[in-house]
Design brief:
The structure holds two protein chains of two kinds. By secondary structure, chain A is of the alpha/beta class. Chain A folds into three domains: 4-87 and 213-277 and 294-340, 3-Layer(aba) Sandwich (D-Maltodextrin-Binding Protein, domain 2); 90-208, D-Maltodextrin-Binding Protein, domain 2 (3-Layer(aba) Sandwich); 351-395, no CATH class. Helices cover 40% and strands 19% of the residues of chain A. Chain A has helices spanning 17-24, 27-30, 43-51, 62-70, 96-101, 111-127, 142-153, 169-177, 190-196, 222-227, 229-246, 252-260, 269-276, 307-320, 327-336, 339-346, 395-401, and strands spanning 4-10, 33-39, 57-61, 79-84, 87-88, 90-95, 132-136, 162-166, 183-187, 200-205, 216-221, 279-280, 289-290, 295-296, 353-354, 368-370, 372-374, 377-379. Chain A is globular and about 60 Å long. Chain B is α/β, with parallel strands linked by helices. Chain B folds into two domains: 3-127, D-Maltodextrin-Binding Protein, domain 2 (3-Layer(aba) Sandwich), CATH 3.40.190; 130-189, Winged helix-like DNA-binding domain superfamily/Winged helix DNA-binding domain (Arc Repressor Mutant, subunit A), CATH 1.10.10.10. Chain B has seven helices and five strands; from the N terminus they run E-H-E-H-E-H-E-H-E-H-H-H. In chain B, strands 2-1-3-5-4 form a five-stranded mixed β-sheet, with helices on both faces. In chain B, helix 1 (10-22) links the parallel strand 1 and strand 2. Chain B starts with a strand and ends with a helix. In chain B, 30% of the residues are buried. Classes of the chains: A alpha/beta, B alpha/beta. Chain A binds chain B through residues 40-45, 48-49, 52-54, 72-75, 137-139, 165-168, 170-171, 321-322, and chain B through 53-63, 65-66, 70, 78-79, 81, 84, 87-88, 91-92, 96.
């Protein structure tokens, strides 16, 4: 197949790596696909370009793909996700002042202990009439849901004990520097840039909140997926090849060179390289520490769109939009993720293909072999920090038990 | 009908507000993009918000609308749901419109249509300005290349220009491209003799 072209919208973030590298290193060309990358600064614009045909597909925060399908805030347009662009890779960064008040050290601390310290500060600030304020990248982002999951789990009630506002990724470090927010939850390299500028201190990697949390996805209108099935399969294969390349130890330097360029992230190469290699500088001037779970772009079939991941995001949408659980909506949310398309695209390649489309999320303590229809698949621990597990078939019971 | 305009380009904001005023829509609020956005919108309580598509505050703005809806405050903005075609045209022109729930389509459409036309006119002006700037830059490069040729080959200006033009025609390139190559090579190798 030749002559297929995909315009792909993206925001300047390290996890836009796969479409960028698929284009730059020739994985797309090898599949007969051309990629044009369209850079924006807000998710609203990425979404609008996708809905009104300026782009064919987009690097997108997973909950936004679900919210758009369900018609939250705007007319519903069904989107489809045939490929996950990565797991985790985000962090929670405190302002220097808050880091001091919460007693952060120069190692990655325990989420429960840091949460307890943060709760003391948050309570004191509420009593003083000036609640803490945290910035997340979008209302419908995994960042919002991960941060809220952690806060609620340590006894800090979002929207009551702490204010959560929206700050688009490229402006998150600025907001921290200007004192507009006391903390941010954002993707890389924007945490590292805050640290390097001396205005922030990384408190937690979001992987410490949920070890295998779904992050950016490749989203497209369902209509595009249906009309261009063969081309989408080729694009999935190209992205999968880019993912395999991305995690090779020798590839990091070149990937950082490419991603740092003005037309992509327009960010310091060193901050990008640290994120790619799972080395995080937590404090200004500190030595980066190695946290292998920081971001997942390939291993453990990270690109496979598990319907249970979409279901968890929907459960958090119900929780934080304070709406009633709805069976039909839950089903529609789960169906945004398309494991069937992923499997069809990669059948006959060496890629491990999970046999199931849904799993218990947060149920694994140790790496375990998982059923696959092709290749050998091992899944690592996917625990939530509070030890709870999510059963996608019983969302209501799960929600009832959450704080 | 109160209309708020949020635009990172002050020039374009002026062009749009002039247009709206000419059409008799003079209850306008120009949002100061250097100051916190939400407080200004909250205070103005507009019925329509026009914002440039690439404005960095769009996620923040949409979050504010969603929150105000959840809290059942009066300013509950929706993207215009009634007219997908007009919304598409607006996005193409580079403008995004949010409209308070319940405002009739007949009242919204002229505003959005006008904003689209003004955005397009502004883009056209910008393009013309860019073209003019490029033309000026090209002329400067050609003058420089002519000076280099005149000095090196001891020829006069018409001869230098004829050389440039002849080379451009033979190689099927623009005169400015040939001139640029000469200026570049002079910068790199001019003192080699």
């Amino acid at each position: 197949m030749t002559g297929e072209r995909f315009r792909i919208g993206f925001l300047p973030l390290v996890d836009a790596a796969l479409p960028v590298l698929a284009h730059e290193i020739g994985f797309a060309a090898a599949e007969g696909v051309a990629i044009d990358l369209v850079r924006d600064m807000t998710w609203a614009t990425v979404r609008d370009r996708l809905l009104y045909g300026h782009t064919d597909a987009a690097h997108m925060i997973a909950p936004l793909a679900i919210a758009t399908t369900l018609g939250k805030d705007r007319p519903a347009v069904p989107l489809a996700v045939p490929f996950v662009l990565g797991l985790n890779g985000n962090a929670v960064t405190f302002s220097t002042k808050l880091a001091e008040e919460a007693g952060l050290t120069d190692t990655l601390g325990d989420p429960i202990r840091i949460g307890a310290a943060l709760k003391q500060v948050a309570d004191a600030r509420v009593a003083a009439g000036k609640a803490l304020r945290f910035g997340v990248v979008h209302r419908y982002s995994s960042h919002n849901y991960m941060l809220r999951y952690w806060l609620a789990g340590v006894g800090i009630r979002p929207d009551q004990d702490i204010e959560i506002v929206v700050t688009s990724p490229p402006f998150a470090a600025d907001a921290l520097a200007a004192g507009e927010v006391d903390g941010i939850c954002v993707g890389e390299p924007w945490n590292s840039i805050a640290v390097d500028r001396g205005v922030g201190h990384i408190a937690l990697a979001t992987a410490q909140i949920w070890r295998r949390g779904v992050e950016k996805v490749l989203a497209m209108p369902e209509a595009t997926l249906n009309e261009r099935r063969e081309a989408v399969a080729a694009l999935v294969r190209a992205l999968h090849a880019a993912a395999a390349h991305f995690v090779e130890p020798g590839a990091a330097e070149e990937s950082a060179d490419i991603l740092a360029r003005p037309e992509y992230l327009d960010a310091p190469r060193d901050a990008v390289l640290r994120a790619i290699t799972d080395r995080i500088r937590l404090v200004p001037g500190g030595e980066p520490i190695h946290y292998p779970d920081f971001m997942f772009q390939y291993r453990e079939a990270a690109n496979f769109p598990w319907r249970s991941q979409a279901a968890w995001l929907y459960s958090q949408m119900v929780r934080w939009d304070y709406m009633a659980f709805d069976d039909a909506e839950a089903a529609a949310a789960g169906n945004v993720f398309r494991p069937d398309v992923y499997r069809a695209a990669l059948a006959g390649s060496g890629a491990p293909l999970p046999g199931a489309s849904s799993k218990l999320e947060g149920g694994l303590d140790e790496p375990i072999g998982a059923g696959s229809t092709q290749g050998r698949l091992t899944l690592g621990s996917d625990r939530f920090f509070d030890g709870r597990a999510f059963d996608p078939d019983d969302i209501e019971t799960y929600l009832a038990k959450l704080p | 009908m109160r209309i708020a305009i949020i635009d990172t380009s002050a020039g374009r904001a002026a062009v749009i507000s002039d247009g709206l005023r000419e059409a008799g829509l003079d209850d306008l609020v120009l949002v100061d993009t250097s100051k916190p956005l939400v407080a200004q919108i909250e205070a103005a309580a507009p019925e329509v918000v026009l914002i440039n598509l690439e404005n960095p505050s769009r996620d923040l703005l949409e979050d504010f609308f969603a929150m105000s809806r959840a809290l059942a405050r009066p300013i509950a903005m929706f993207v215009d749901q009634s007219d997908a075609e007009a919304t598409g045209a607006a996005i193409d022109a580079g403008v995004s419109a949010y409209v308070v729930d319940g405002l009739s389509k007949q009242r919204i459409k002229p505003v959005v249509d006008l904003a689209i036309r003004r955005f397009q006119a502004f883009s056209r002006l910008q393009r013309e300005l860019d073209d003019a700037k490029n033309a000026l830059a090209e002329r400067a490069v050609i003058d420089k290349a002519k000076a280099i040729l005149m000095k090196r080959r001891q020829i006069d200006e018409p001869e230098a220009y004829a050389l440039l033009r002849g080379q451009a025609m033979r190689t099927n390139r623009r005169i400015s491209e040939i001139a640029e190559a000469i200026v570049t090579s002079e910068a790199l190798m001019g003192d080699m003799e």
